[in-house]
Specification:
heterotrimer, A mainly alpha, B mainly alpha, C mainly alpha, A: mainly alpha, 3-stranded parallel beta sheet, 3 strands, about 40% helix, about 5% strand, B: mainly alpha, Fumarate Reductase Cytochrome B subunit, 12 helices, binds protoporphyrin IX containing FE, binds iron/sulfur cluster
């Protein structure tokens, strides 16, 4: 279980355009003890600021991407979260860039980064020497 | 002059308005059946109705709650715009004489007030267009012209009722303004009075039926 | 004002015939209706993070961005010069991420993002899409993924990850091209290229859940930057590549990475 404050980024194509906002939250709540949703969350969440191909458009667009990402940076800062769970490869790159740009002091992780550390491993999948 | 304006020209106006809107709506739907086939894969009645309803009741959507000035002005404007011409005693007497049909009619005093409310609401809408930068930047001269076209029948109607200036001339101008408004509906953004329902049905289904998310 | 970011070449040509054809093709029911009925009411402004992040600079309000691009193209019937089209490209690529939030705040539910995407299609037809996307599109065409990774490199990366991860979870495999799996898992090409650990983590979850899964040796990149560029042909080809893989392997579902 994560005990530090956690927030969740709704990727546009998963929440608003994917209809999975609720399921994402259920999963987050199962993984942490201090979940703090952003202002404007779920279907209403803002784009990370790197969507629609903005990140792969490359360096000429970086400055603008950081400027328009201010809204997301502020949303994250307001929650006081230390970890942001981000179920999207594109959003996570943007949020890590924002972390540097706006000095948010957060860690952005995928679900799949944290689940392997918390899941219950079936006995037959444990190697012998690992019997803790 | 009065006979012509209040006789054949009324017919012309109604035919252009109703015929125009039918042609326009049917045209758009058949065009979309050819070019936007995807739309029809997830058209859903329930989501369409909810999407329309939420934006038809005052403050039914988050966008409206966050913009109370536009919401109040917009609803006052539209309610008066539809109610006054339909339920005005004078109009109903005319229809009764001409075609033997009439609707419930409201007391003149209420119609009078509603007209003033409509004009006040229109002034608020105009001020918004001038003072809010995000509205100003998208405002075109057509927006002002159409607001004027929509208000003109009310202003002239008020003047005629209160016998300002030459009542006969004002009445003729009033009828002409009403006809101008009807005729402009199919050819301008005023066509939203029908297309509102189509576009809301589309986006409601696009978000709702396809993804289970809301648009209000 | 941001610096120009698209098309830094000196090319001055525009094929207005192609633009006109595209405008015509696009002018289906929806586009026509949206462009006409927009009340110019400004309700969509506050919903857009570009607008908010630039201290409510009106030039970032959604409706304006469409009027300045697709709207103007229709008004001018496609007769624009390259300089104008370049300005439009800056807007459609650089001032909107097509997130669709504004559609939730518009009284008519006008789909700004879809119209911006149409504007991208037109810019792309004149080769005005950003260089980063051009490179990715070439990679999709050549290799079926945006990072130009060969099938061998991809499979090798998976094998390497499987080997490393088996140390943590006994019996773990990353099955490649297995027939009849319940889930065919696909990834973002940046994962095998830069973050192979991501594939290992997904594999651990699948394995612990005893999932019947596989990854295809070809058609494993589920990103579609061609779509963002407005290149419909490459977009369709890429989608087809992934679907064909699922069909070839008889997979029941296609799983997409986070
Ligand atoms: C009956 C169904 C109608 C519906 C559902 C409808 C809906 C709307 C909506 C949602 C807006 C944008 C926001 C607002 O200003 O409130 C609007 C604006 C407007 N409508 Fe309507 N409308 C209808 C009928 C009409 C008619 C019959 C007219 C005039 C002939 C009209 C004239 C206008 C005008 C002039 C505006 C722009 C207001 C401005 O300048 O800000 N509407 N309508
Ligand atoms: S779709 Fe584009 S214009 Fe609309 S809110 Fe998102 S970024 Fe802004
Ligand atoms: S909210 Fe809708 S109708 Fe109003 S300006 Fe924006 S796009 Fe146009």
């Amino acid at each position: 279980m994560l005990t530090e404050p956690v927030t969740y980024q709704d990727p546009c194509n998963i929440s608003r355009n994917g209809g999975l906002a609720k399921q994402g939250r259920e999963l987050v709540k199962a993984l942490c003890t201090d979940f703090r949703d952003m202002r404007d969350n779920g279907d209403y969440n803002h784009c990370c600021g790197g969507g629609g191909g903005y990140i792969p458009m490359g360096p000429p667009f970086k400055r603008r991407r950081m400027e328009s990402g201010r809204v997301k940076a502020e949303q994250i800062r307001e929650t006081g979260a230390k970890t942001v769970i981000v179920p999207c490869h594109n959003c996570i790159d943007q949020i890590r860039d924002l972390n540097k740009e706006y000095d948010l002091g957060i860690k952005a992780v995928h679900f799949k980064t944290i689940i392997p550390h918390m899941m219950i491993i079936p006995d037959d999948m444990k190697h012998e020497e690992e019997s803790e | 002059m009065y006979e012509f304006v209040s006789g054949p020209l009324v017919w012309v106006a109604f035919i252009v308005f109703i015929g125009g809107m039918i042609i326009k709506t049917v045209g758009l739907i058949s065009l979309s059946k050819k070019k936007d086939k995807v739309v029809y894969n997830h058209l859903n009645l329930d989501w369409s109705m909810r999407s329309i309803f939420r934006w038809l009741v005052p403050f039914g959507s988050r966008g409206m709650r966050e913009n109370p000035v536009l919401t109040i002005a917009g609803f006052v404007f539209h309610i008066c715009l539809l109610a006054v011409p339909l339920f005005l005693l004078g109009h109903n007497i005319l229809w009764d004489e001409a075609w033997g049909i009439s609707l419930w009619s409201m007391p003149d005093r209420i119609a009078d007030w509603m007209t003033l409310f409509l004009i006040a609401a229109a002034i608020v809408l105009i001020i918004r267009r001038i003072v809010l930068p995000e509205v100003k930047i998208v405002t075109t001269s057509t927006d002002y012209i159409l607001l004027a076209i929509a208000c003109a029948p009310f202003i002239t109607g008020y003047m005629a009722y209160h016998q300002w200036m030459d009542a006969k001339t004002i009445t003729i101008i009033h009828i002409l303004c009403g006809e101008l408004m009807l005729i402009s509906i199919p050819f301008t953004k005023l066509s939203h009075m029908i297309l509102f329902f189509l576009s809301r049905a589309h986006i409601g289904s696009e978000f709702g039926e396809r993804r289970g998310t809301v648009t209000w | 004002m941001a610096e120009a970011a698209v098309d830094t070449t000196e090319d001055q040509t525009v094929d207005t015939k192609v633009i006109k054809e595209r405008l015509d093709l696009l002018k289906g029911g929806r586009f026509k209706m949206w462009l006409e009925i927009c009340a110019h009411c400004g309700l969509c402004a506050d919903s857009c993070f570009f607008y908010l992040a630039h201290d409510k600079d009106p030039k970032y309000m959604p409706s304006h961005k469409v009027m300045k691009t697709l709207g103007e193209l229709y008004d001018k019937k496609g007769e624009v010069d390259r300089a104008t089209l370049k300005e439009m490209a800056e807007v459609v690529y650089g001032d909107c991420t097509a997130c669709r939030r504004c559609s939730m705040f518009c009284p008519f539910g006008i789909d700004i993002a879809t119209m911006i995407a149409a504007g991208r299609g037109i810019c792309c037809s004149q080769d005005l899409h950003p260089d980063g996307l051009k490179a990715a599109i070439q990679n999709y065409k050549d290799t079926g993924n945006q990072m130009a990774m060969s099938s061998e490199d991809f499979v090798e990366t998976c094998e390497w990850m499987a080997e490393e991860t088996e140390e943590e979870l006994k019996g773990l495999e990353i099955p490649i091209d297995k027939q009849g799996a319940r889930i065919m898992y696909t990834v973002n090409a940046r994962e095998p290229k830069f973050y192979p650990q991501d594939i290992a983590e997904a594999a651990m979850i699948f394995h612990a859940a005893r999932e019947n899964w596989t990854m295809p040796s070809n058609g494993w990149d589920d990103t579609n930057l061609a779509m963002f560029a407005g290149d419909g042909k490459t977009m369709t080809a890429q989608v087809k590549l992934v679907y064909d893989a699922a069909e070839r392997l008889g997979a029941e579902n296609i799983g997409i990475t986070e």
